[in-house]
Predict the 3D structure of the following.
Amino acid sequence: MSFSLSPIGLVIAIGLLLPNILFMIFFPPKNIPSKTRSTLLIFLFMERVGQIGCLFLVSTTNPVKVIDGWLILSFLFLLLYYLLWIRYVKNDRDYSFLTKSFLFVPIPLAILPCCIFFVSAIWGHSIWLGIGAIIFAIGHWKVSLDSAE
């Protein structure tokens, strides 16, 4: 198995990381609850391992057919992800908007990155990215649920 950088995969990876870094540095949340549920270490571990694995694997995914419906869906999820970050900033960076439902989707800022990795795994025909996405989703959803009010 050889790895080479994928320009589209890099855009997806950077696109997912950028709002987390920018908004948390320049627009940190307000009204953070003093107490949240503690999360078992295994879920934190799964979240980090899955996240690192997914970011690496999506950055090296080179599908045979570069642009297809799965890639478009991935970018639509990414666009929605950015819109939800904007919603957070427009609502005075209130912590609750990091976990507030959108339409029928609970904790959308946690679910959308998982969806993006799943769809990217289908787009790239990558079983390893799919496995990483499952590991990441289990950890990320549990950590996010525990930090929700």
Q: What stands out?
A: The chain has one domain: 42-147. The mean pLDDT is 88.
